Amino acid sequence: MTRFADSEIARVKDGPISDAIGRYVDWDRAKSVPSKGDFWACCPFHGEKTPSFHCDDGKGIYKCFGCGATGDHIRFVQEYLGKSFAEAVEYLGGSPDAQTDPETEARLAAERERKRREQDAAAERYREDERRKAYAIWREGRPLPGTEAEAYLAARRLAPVMDGLRLRYVPSQPYWHQKKVSGEKKPKPYVLYSGPALLSPMTRPDGTFAGVHITWFDPDRPGKKLALGDPETGEILPAKKIRGSKRQAAERLIMPAAFDRLVIGEGRETVLSAARAEKAKRPDRFVRTAFWASIDLQHMGGNATETVAHPTLKTKLGRPARVPGPVPDMSDEAAIPLPEFVREVVTLGDGDSDRFTAEQVHARAAARWAMTGRTIVAAWAPEGKDFNDLAMEEA
Ligand SMILES: [Zn+2]
């Protein structure tokens, strides 16, 4: 085995890692900040359409947030060109014998392309399988009136249930969780709990089914979501889960046959509260309005071109936390598209989400959906409250 002096290894790692890697990937110009040595690309190790492969010249490392590939100059050459450590050092050091001949490079490129296509196909099969499972859950759902789901909504001042509301109820939905098994690498999935849940369908712009959003509620405490503890850590687990894909999907809760106005918010109950208030106070406007939930906060704005420093939140190391910024990445094909005929948009902001983070999302949504002749306004609940709290106070 060839031994290298530390100085030789240091020398091959001396240049910017983005130069070494940039020969093999196309940096994403919108996301990269070359002046800071900050580069993003679609990952060369797994198939993807939006860049999650990051390269940091300052630290001299790359890292993929999609597949976890990570390393330095040498590691990249080893992994990407299929070389040993010694060969990679010689390759980077410019030793003429170590350069790969065009034939080998072409063969390796073809092999990588084949692997990427295989991974893409496997991912697509997985997504379709998940979608079918999600649809099977939704199909089991039944109408809300007369059920404990209606009682849950009533306790939150969200009943009687509106006509045409796209929500269903299941009496016993399994809650899957994972536990570590000694001697095994992968945690083992098991059913931690089964109980009543609300279901709402996530649909794509063409109306096709994309997934289901499941919310478990506590049958013994009307109006309360399920507070299920993790048996291992004791921490409270999320009462909501989504199955299926968020890609271009939203929970289209109320869809009039014809509408030119859209009210959209992060959470289902926020949106329902707004719908009820509007139906009572402005029925003329209510009838021409669709009410959607965006599944989660960030999905409302889609991807950002860059992150921004949070004015008060800090990381564990005391640096400002970074959150997705106000400028939408218009190449994000997974973001929620709006039909062109929508002339008015109201984005609902909960006072109980972090305000700065939410403002960036609303700014992105407004910029993404901007169109001649369309107005977009943000409506904010008072600090510390959401629209559901307001409905409960007004009731
Ligand atoms: Zn990757």
TrEMBL record:
SMART domains: ZnF_CHCC
GO BP annotations, alphabetical order: DNA replication, synthesis of primer
Pfam families named among the record's database cross-references: DUF7146, Zn_ribbon_DnaG
MF GO annotations: DNA binding; DNA-directed RNA polymerase activity; zinc ion binding
SUPFAM superfamilies: Zinc beta-ribbon
Domain of life: Bacteria
GO cellular component, one term: cytoplasm
InterPro entries membership: DNA_primase_Znf_CHC2, DnaG_primase, DUF7146, Znf_CHC2
Domain Zinc finger CHC2-type as annotated: residue spans: 39-93
Annotated keywords: Metal-binding, Zinc, Zinc-finger
PANTHER family from the UniProt entry: DNA PRIMASE
Name of the protein this chain belongs to: DNA primase
Organism in which the protein naturally occurs: Stappia albiluteola
